[in-house]
Amino acid sequence: MSEAGGAVLVACAHGTRSEAGRAVVRSVVEDLRALVGGTPVREAFVDVQEPAVGPAVGDAVRAGGVAVVVPLLLSTGFHVRHDIGAAVARRPAVAAGPLGPDDRLVTILVERLTEAGATADDAVVLAAAGSSDPAAAEAVAEVLAGLRARWPGPVTVGYGAAARPSVGDAVAAARATGARRVVVASYLLAPGHFHGALAGAGADVVTAPLGPHPLLARIALDRFRDAAR
């Protein structure tokens, strides 16, 4: 049985040239398909890859459904407000909320830190992509607060672009505290340009990105259900 009668779930990711990154997004989409049963699930992207979100929504609507676009993005920002917003405007379509903030993302971050061998003696830098949208900064701040509440050592934040401090500056500041090591916690969905750049930020360890992880599809499912109502 489908999750929402007549609805088509359009899972919209950023898009990447990284084959590993594309594989992660496909895994999230496949996990979603398994969770929603008979509800059709289509892929879309805001950059780099096809189909673009606008045509994907149009195809979903022409197929006779109401399109629910679920951003496979960690926070709001230009792509959610403008690209996805334009795709659903003046159509029988709606945009769900992005994946973050969500405490389950903090759970994944803690898992990735543990997998990387981080300890309370290390300084952790939460590395987010960055956005000029104040709402995106608020979303990252909420995740930062959640990680600080659940990780035993010090945690600060750095951004890949469009916000300060940069990841490199945050790593340098963390190292200046005299911590045993500096560990970058990648608050990125998948491998790609931004995750690759973290290797040059000067940290001792960089964790794997959030995906693949089964909790990502469960968060996306909750966003879909909320929007479909």
Describe the structure concisely for a colleague.
By secondary structure, this protein is an alpha/beta fold. It has helices at 19-36, 53-62, 78-88, 103-115, 134-150, 167-175, 193-197, 214-228; strands spanning 7-13, 41-45, 66-71, 93-95, 123-128, 155-159, 182-187, 205-206. The strands form two sheets. Strands 2-1-3-4 form a four-stranded parallel sheet, with helices on both faces.
Shape: elongated
CATH architecture of the largest domain: 3-Layer(aba) Sandwich
Strand segment tally:
8
Strands in their spatial order, largest beta sheet: 2-1-3-4
Q: What does the model show?
A:
Keywords: Lyase, Metal-binding. Strands 2-1-3-4 form a four-stranded parallel sheet, sandwiched between helices. Helix 1 packs across helix 8 and helix 2 packs parallel to helix 3. 43% of the residues lie in helices and 17% in strands. The longest helix has 18 residues. The two termini are 16 Å apart. It is built from eight helices and eight strands. The chain has 229 residues and is α/β, with parallel strands linked by helices. The chain has two domains: 109 residues, 3-Layer(aba) Sandwich (Rossmann fold); 104 residues, 3-Layer(aba) Sandwich (Rossmann fold), CATH 3.40.50.1400.
SSE order and pairing:
Blueprint: E1 7-13, H1 19-36, E2 41-45, H2 53-62, E3 66-71, H3 78-88, E4 93-95, H4 103-115, E5 123-128, H5 134-150, E6 155-159, H6 167-175, E7 182-187, H7 193-197, E8 205-206, H8 214-228
Parallel strand pairs: 1-2, 1-3, 3-4, 5-6, 5-7, 7-8
